[in-house]
Amino acid sequence: MPKLIFPLILMVVLSGSQPTAQDTWSLEECIQYAFDHNIQIKQQQLNAQVNENNLSQTRLGALPSLNAGAAHNFSFGRALDETTYEFTQNQQVQSSNFNVNSSMTLFNGFQQWNSVQRDRFSLKASLQDLARLKNEISLNVASAYLQILFNYELMEVSSDQLELIRQEVERTEKLVEAGSLARGNLLEMQAQAANEELNLVNAQNRLRSSYISLIQLLELESAEGFEIARPALGEWLEQVPLHSLDSIYRLARKTLPRIKGAEYNLRSREEALEVAKGRLSPSLSLNLNYGTRYSSIRDRIVAMDTVTMPIGRTQNDVPVFSSQPVPNYSDYPFWDQLQDNANASIMFNLSIPIFNGWQVRTSIDNARVSKLQARYELELQENSLFKDIQTARSDATAAWKKYKSAGKTVESMREAFKYTQKKFEVGLVNSIEFNTAKNNLIRAQSELLQAKYEYLFKTRILDFYQGKPIKI
Questions:
Q1: pLDDT tens for residues 267-304?
Q2: Are 139 and 50 a contacting pair, CB within 8 Å?
Q3: Which fold has domain 245-280+358-472?
Q4: pTM for this structure?
């Protein structure tokens, strides 16, 4: 009969859905789905992308810059013709300027190199933050998953107890009808059956609530057809040999993202300090420039004509003539002007910081403080990790002892209940004593289940600290 009741209960829990085998989710599938759909993970991935872009930009910043420019001017009235450096009067002038320039930093106190290292460690730190977030989500999903398994087994216990009390109600009804028992015994058993039905409903509600918690962690849009896989854990678990506290800590110290992220953040702050110190150093840069011009009023000489002109008279009043060359102008084409006006320059620029309102010194001091904060954060993470491992190992040991003790208690309570049940069936004990023995057994079974899943979760936490994937 219990085998028939459990599927019906499961249907109630899942709101009437009957998931197929392909809808059954393992713990690994739940964790992977959470990785793919969790919004916090997506946000952290974007943060990592920003840091990656910053690193790429810093690396590219070491390359020479190259820029081009062009300008076209309209001038009226008195204006300076930049191609001849002469002023024009009451003329409309059009002029164009074209230039290409490039600059490159040759030395700036290794600021560029240190900036690349700073951003590289910042990227690594953000990736470790992403891995740390995934680890936290993995533990949360595993905890919710185990809570469902625990509530499943509690529901099965409640279902078995309900079936047992129903059988006793049927037997008591027959004894009352035969006159062997008073009707008060039947009423007490029926009340107990009603109480067991309430316990089963509460177990169903707890199971439904634990399913909702897992679904919310997975960011599922709908719970329809969702069911987790139930691995065969066995009635008794085997004790897992626990490594020493120091060995677990050493391994966790090398692998856990919370520590590696703090280390990379410290390295980033150290490089940021070197960048700040580099601003005290002189900087040397190289600048290259190429340009040309055009003017609409500029003419060019195409030939020299000889003109005879009077330059005076002699004493006898005889005119004196002289031959002088006179330039012959023509239009100056656009492309010819650009070619003839081309100019290039190379310039080295040396900048020596002397006094800048103490800004550089202040930035260095702030960088030192930031580095010290990162070092304290690393120490804080190391101390916190050691304490967490210490607590987890102690909890795992205590949970195993509790599990073994609870198992012995269940065996004792089961035998005591069987003995009381037999005495109840022959009328040697009343229903109150029967219910007391049954409730003691149920309480012991619940404590055993709690101890089993507590031990299972604590050992998985220790596996997590040792870099092992979370599995059941």
A1: 999 999 999 999 999 999 999 999 998 888 777 766 66
A2: no
A3: Outer membrane efflux proteins (OEP) (1.20.1600)
A4: 0.77
